[in-house]
Specification:
Length: 149
């Protein structure tokens, strides 16, 4: 379902970071949902750690469910800071960012590297007059984080 990536930060799992079965609604607070398929996700050990998600739960603004919620409608990447932002100040999105540490330094660095590489490819394509390449790169940018031109 998540193609070897954490359901929250999308980091590859299995090489440097190990997987965890993540209970979206913490089993300490919702024991009756412990084995419910709709409450289980595949996450990295960092996002699911006590420092980040752990047993945190906000009844009024629960974190987004990466299996059922359309994440691109809630979160976007600020291409200047490489931080994840809440679209329209959505409170569930803000809770998700906070509870899973989506703006931790390592993730920001990785996103910044990707954005910088894509910007450089765009500059090269525009300078070379490669209109089709520009369109392809633009599509890749939009897939990375809803970067709009």
């Amino acid at each position: 379902m998540f193609e070897g990536q954490c359901c929250f930060c999308e980091s590859p799992i299995g090489v440097q970071v190990f997987e965890r079965i993540e209970h979206l609604m913490p089993k300490s607070k919702f024991p009756h949902l412990c084995f419910e398929w709709c409450n289980l996700n595949y996450s990295c050990e960092v996002c699911n750690s006590k420092k980040y998600k752990g047993d945190k739960w906000d009844d009024e603004n629960p974190i987004l469910n990466p299996t059922f919620d359309e994440i691109k409608n809630y979160l976007e990447i600020d291409i200047e800071t490489a931080k994840i932002l809440s679209i329209n100040n959505d409170l569930r999105a803000k809770t998700t960012i906070e509870h899973t540490g989506l703006n931790r330094e390592g993730l920001i660095e990785r996103r910044r590297d990707i954005v910088n590489k894509l910007k450089e490819l765009l500059r090269i394509a525009v300078k070379a007059g490669a209109v089709e390449d520009f369109k392809d790169i633009k599509n890749q940018c939009q897939r990375v984080g809803d970067i709009h031109f």
